[in-house]
Amino acid sequence: MGDPIAARLIAAAKQGDWRTIGDTLSDVEHPDDHTFYVRTAAYNSGVERWIDDWVAAEPHSALPLLVKGAHAIHWAWEARGGGRASTVGDEAFRLFFKRLKLAEDCLDEVTDRDRDSATPWVFLVILGRGRQLGIDETRRRFEEVCRRYPWHLEAHDQMLQQLCRKWSGSHDLMHEFAQRTLAEMPAGSPLGRLTATAHLEHWLDLDSDEDAAYIGSAEVRAQLLAAADRSVRHPDYVRRPGWPSVHNSFATAFSFSGDWTAAAEQFDIIGDLVTEWPWQYMRRPDLAFLEYRKRAYTELGR
Question: What average pLDDT is seen over the chain?
Fold first, then answer.
């Protein structure tokens, strides 16, 4: 995402340089930034080959266990794959849940060692969905995050996913959560992107003869503009690490809804910093981004 700290963490993870990872993460204070950088370091293939060396070297520290627990979530999804449940074999599922249990054990220990940190609870929110613990348990974990930092972006993103119909929620629960967050959040918060995510998830769940009419409706377009005005278009908005994903969410939603003026504004901000999500809803995320950006600029005569 054009972030030099993220690039350094990825390089260190690939090299097994846990000292650089530890030094870098120890300097991060903002809860959103901390979670973003922990995830950046942990969500890399091969971390499992060296993470126990770090845990052994710092047996009383919470940080190596945090990275180990976060990585185990990524490692579990590597075993499962990204397909629907019907496409996943028994052995893959067994390994998936085994690694998720490892993640939970690590993160539970982290919450005991570092009681003030929101980050382990964010990953426990993800695990609530992955381990199929239900909405009530995932919400309890989400509330633990909010006690420490009430406007945590990743936690809200993950809670919204739990409320999607595909994860045992409903469209009503999902939209209600996004709308309440938008109304209560500080002006300029990136949490406004939950409105865009909710409409994209609703669009994705509809049949092909309904989806375009839904997301292109006057009501949805008005809600997207209102959310952008209160978040990324608000004068108090500040770009934090990971900011391209927020703008890509709005760019996708505006593009799908046919609001080319609003989409072009987001594409101008993004530049070439395309993110896989939510363009992954299309067959080729990179080509979809380029095609919709070109369409937005063409519609405006640029």
Answer: 95
Residue 242's region, left for phi above 0, alpha for psi from -120 to 50, else beta, is left
pLDDT in tens, 178-192: 999 999 999 999 999
Residue with tokens 């994705």: 204
Alpha-carbon distance of 289 to 292, in angstroms, equals: 5
The amino acid sitting at 141 is R
CA distance 89 to 86: 8
Confirm if 60 and 29 have CB atoms less than 8 A apart: no
Q: Give me the amino acid identity at 122.
A: V
Q: In angstroms, rounded to a whole number, what is the distance separating the alpha carbons of residues 219 and 270?
A: 26
First to last CA, the chain: 25
CA distance 67 to 70: 5
Question: Which percentage of the chain shows pLDDT scores above 70?
Answer: 97
Please list, in sequence order, all residues whose beta carbon lies within 8 angstroms of the beta carbon of residue 182, skipping any fewer than 6 positions away: 191, 192, 194, 195, 226, 227, 230, 231
In this predicted structure, the answer to whether residue 69 has a pLDDT above a threshold of 60 is yes
